[in-house]
């Protein structure tokens, strides 16, 4: 076990090797910081190291889902407009080679605790294997989707078939051919899984609690869809325009489903929630897949699992070999709250946020000196194209650390009033839109017992960047302590 003295071996320890962690490592090393990443997965890539399920794919057109460094994009040949998980893993290997990342990344290592040591103004980070790392700055680049969620269905443990969350799809995938498969959930992942499995399994049953207002991947080529895009700004704030957009989508999409029962479940005439109040999926042939003869679609809630399948509230028993629980994540805050990050006086992030999430700029937290979060709550995060936003946020963090070092500042942490002002700002902005009106992972509505509040900054990247830069001008929203 390594020990820690007043001069930690590392300047910066980053938890997580997704887009955020990898870019930070590259940037901070270039700026002279001794930096290391600790990553729980067996490969870099973040969510793309974990998500190997059939049909996994980005919903952002390339080349925008990637790093902007010409040394990376000039020498990687994407083969599809919307890249698959497999290609993204190959991309990350290319990134690792070009930026020489692997020498400073420890894979297969989960952080279980991080504690701020007041006397030395350092962080002590503990892993599952009882290793301890010391660092001056701690950065959680742990993403929004580390803590998977499967509901505690009655009887689940009695089910004798295979049950799998898409983020834990085995590297050696189990065959779906000839199998009876349940696809529970119709979020972005459920939609992709249904599209892929329905073509190979003997029968799929799709359990839909809330239909996905999914948009075709080809949308840029179709003039009607351009119309939808033009309405984008206003339909986020005006319920009538939102309804108009829904009616248009509804009319177009219902034509694609011949089975009237499936049509009413998947594309109801009554708008189920405001467009964008849940993250819309991007689909290829989702509606045609659901319409297939070998696919059943039901919105009857799951009552309980049995040895051979599951029973729904309408009294129907469904039998399965494989259940794919596309039931999402305790998103945005779940991973951060369970990692046991302890700031001053042993207060954990989980305790700090028990009456509501509170941060400064979605990056800093009072009582957590020299600690930053990347792609975290109260920042634009999931409302953006991830890699693009992450580059901007990582560059901001690198600037903070560099300025701190240049000005001989030992620690920074936000003032209590700055945090409160940021929380009010984030919630106030969201309240001007229709975003918080639904129940989704954007506001914790998908997790029983989770406090329901909107978790993202809706002002967009340019305004967010402006506000972040302003906060950095004179450190007035921070408590700072000089020294080495
Ligand atoms: C299936 C799926 C599809 C997506 N598609 C899109 C898309 O099309 N467009 C888009 O913009 N965004 C998409 N996203 C969001 C995606 O999270 C971001 O695009 C981006 O990957 C975020 O990168 P990140 O580095 O912040 O976090 P992540 O990619 O989530 O990486 C975080 C890393 O931290 C590690 N970690 C977490 N906790 C610990 C711990 N305690 N110890 C050690 N390591 C830890 C995790 O293992 C993970 O590798 C998708 C997400 C998922 C799950």
Automatic annotation (TrEMBL):
Which InterPro entries does the entry mention? Answer: FAD-binding_Monooxygenases, FAD/NAD-bd_sf, Flavin_mOase-like
The reply on keyword Nucleus is no
Q: Where are the transmembrane segments?
A: none
Q: Which UniProt keywords apply?
A: FAD, Flavoprotein, Monooxygenase, NADP, Oxidoreductase
Q: Name one GO molecular function term.
A: flavin adenine dinucleotide binding
Cofactor (UniProt): FAD
Q: Which family does it belong to?
A: Belongs to the FAD-binding monooxygenase family.
| Protein name per the record | FAD/NAD(P)-binding domain-containing protein
Q: Which species is this UniProt entry from?
A: Gomphillus americanus
